[in-house]
Amino acid sequence: MSASSTKSILVTGGAGYIGSHTVLQLLLSGCHVAAVDNLDNSSHLAISRVSHLAADSANRLSFHKLDLRDRPALERVFSSNKFDAVIHFAGLKAVGESVAKPLFYYNNNVIGTIVLLEVMAAYGCKKLVFSSSASVYGSPERVPCTEDFPLAPMNPYGKTKLVVEDICRDLHRADPEWQIMLLRYFNPVGAHPSGLLGEDPRGIPNNLMPYVQQVAVGRRPALTVFGNDYSTKDGTGIRDYIHVVDLADGHNAALTKLFEKDSKIGCEAYNLGTGKGTSVLEIVSAFEKASGKKIPVVFGERRPGDCEILYAATTKAETQLNWKAKYGIEEMCRDQWNWACNNPYGYGSSDSNPQDEIISTKTKGGGDSWFSDICITS
Ligand code: NAD
Ligand code: UD1
C-alpha cells in the first residue's frame, strides 16, 4: 500500500505500452483507474489483458475510448468521476514521423495536452504526472545527464515534450496549486513478465529492442547497427535501457510523492533511467543469450540525429522519489523475449494469442462481452 492507494487516477494513453503496465501497477496498489485512449497506436486487447492480470482489482478500472482533443468527451469522463491526479501518457512518439509531419505532432501532443489541462483546471484536478523524454536533452555534452542540463531537443517529437514541459512550468508559476511531475524516460524496453503485455509497434520498428525482437522471431532478416565508429567501448551507441515494469513503478513513486501530506513539489523534472549505459552490441548479445537465437547484424551508417552516448543521473529520483530501477539488461531481454514468443505479431488480431480466448472466456460477465463491461465508449 502506498500513499497513492485508494486514490482515483485518470490515465491518458492507458492502452499504450507504458500506460498499460502502469495502469496494472496502479490497480494492484489499490487505486481506482480510468484509462482513456483513442487506440490510434494501441489495442483494446491491452486493456482486456490488464483487467485479467489485475484479477479482483479490475473492478476499479474503467476504459474510455476517446481522443484528448475531443473536449466534450473528456469532460464527460471528468463529470462522472472525481480524479485526484492525472498521469498523461497519450501522445505520438515516432521521431522520424515527427520530422515528416511536424504539425500532426504539435497538434496531437501539444493541443491534446492543453485541452487536458484546461479540463483538469475546470474540474479542480491540479496534480499531473507527465511523460516527458530524455530526448529533451538532445545531444548532451557529457553524461550522466542531470535534470538541470540545458534542454535542446533535436526533432519535433522532442520539441513537443519541451513545449509541454514549459507549459507546465508556466502553469505552476501562474497558479502554485498545480503540482506537476515531469518524468523524463530514458529507453523503456522489456515487457510484463506474464508475457501478456508488451510493446507492439506499427510497421517497421524505429527503436532497437523491438527491431532485435523481430529479427529473433524471423520477421526481419538482420539488424542494421547504426554506426560502429563512435568513440565508445565497441564503437556502437550507448543508451540507458530501463525495464517497463520499473518505469511503471516509477509512476507509483511519483504519485506517492504528489500525495504526500503538505507536498509542495511545484513543477519538477525527474529522470527515470537506470544510470547504466549499454551499447547496441551488448544488447544484441544479451538478447541472443536470452532467446537462444542468433541475431544477424549488418553495420550501417550512423542514424542522423543520434547521439553517441546518453544515460541518466538517477540521484534525484532515488533521493526525492525513493525509487530506483531494479531490473538489469538480462531481465529486460528475458521479458522481451517471453512477450515475443507469446505474441510474435504483437496484439495482432484477437485470435493471434490463444490466451485472449481464455481471458475473455474467464472474465465474461454475462453481458455482450466482458470488454463492454468496462468499456464506456464516448
Ligand atoms: P504508446 O504509443 O504505446 O502509447 C501512447 C498511447 O496514447 C497510445 O495508446 C495512443 O493510442 C494514445 N494516444 C495518442 N494520442 C492520443 C490522443 N490525442 N488522445 C488519446 N489517446 C492518444 O507509447 P508509449 O511508449 O507507451 O509512450 C507513452 C508516453 O511516453 C508518450 O507520451 C511517449 O512520448 C513517452 N515516451 C515514450 C518513450 C518510449 O521509448 N516508449 C520514451 C520517452 C517518452
Ligand atoms: C530514440 C529517439 C528518441 C526517443 C527514444 C525512445 C531518435 C533519433 N531518437 O532514441 O527521441 O526518446 O528513441 O523512444 O530516433 N539502433 C540501431 N539499429 C536500429 C535501431 C537503433 O543500431 O535498428 C541504435 C541507435 O543508433 C542507438 C540505439 O540503437 O544507438 C538505441 O536506439 P533507439 O532504440 O532508437 O533509441 P534512441 O536512439 O535512444
From TrEMBL:
CDD domains: UDP_G4E_1_SDR_e (cd05247). GO terms for molecular function: UDP-glucose 4-epimerase activity. GO terms for cellular component: cytosol. Its EC number is 5.1.3.-. PROSITE patterns: PROKAR_LIPOPROTEIN (PS51257). Residues 10-335 form the NAD(P)-binding domain. It comes from the Eukaryota. Keywords: Carbohydrate metabolism, Isomerase, NAD. Its cofactor is NAD(+). GO terms for biological process: galactose metabolic process. Pathway: Carbohydrate metabolism; galactose metabolism. The keyword Isomerase applies. It catalyses: UDP-alpha-D-glucose = UDP-alpha-D-galactose. Belongs to the NAD(P)-dependent epimerase/dehydratase family. This is UDP-glucose 4-epimerase.
